Amino acid sequence: MLIQAGYGEVSRRQEGRPVMKIITICGSLKYEKEMMAAAEELELSGNCVLSPIYPVRAGKEAYTAEELDILGRMHKEKIRLSDAVYVVNVDNYIGSSTRSEIEFAQSLQKEVLYLVERGNQIR
Which residues have a Cβ under 8 Å from the Cβ of 54 and sit 6 or more positions away? Predict the structure, then answer.
């Protein structure tokens, strides 16, 4: 997997030196392994990566509505803190939660990057 969001390519510059970007990983947790691989590659490229919490309980049903709300709000806060979001859209798949995260990021004028290039289009 080649990620074109590395240090020096999408990183900011301060006093002529590259400064890491803070990038939040977004995507369906059914692609957890791909999300973890993207996070690793982005970090090794010199970025600070914020990832969603990978569930340790068996399925979404194991969480209360309150817990799911907390996790959702915390992920949105990660997006707020970020310079960009990196959408892990395996096979161009973007579910409703990820779509709302992209829209939230765009409303904050955050850069949106995709594993599978989609242009500026949300499907």
Answer: 29, 32, 35, 36
**65's tokens:** 């509505």
List the beta bridge partners of residue 85: 24, 112
Distances (CA, A) of 113 to 7, 25, 67, 89, 105: 14, 10, 28, 10, 11
Tell me the whole-structure pTM to 2 decimals. Answer: 0.80
* Helix locations, 6-95, DSSP H: 32-44, 65-81
Q: Are strands 12-14 and 17-19 parallel, antiparallel or unpaired?
A: antiparallel
Per-residue pLDDT tens for 9-66?
444 555 666 678 999 999 998 899 999 999 999 999 999 999 988 777 777 788 899 9
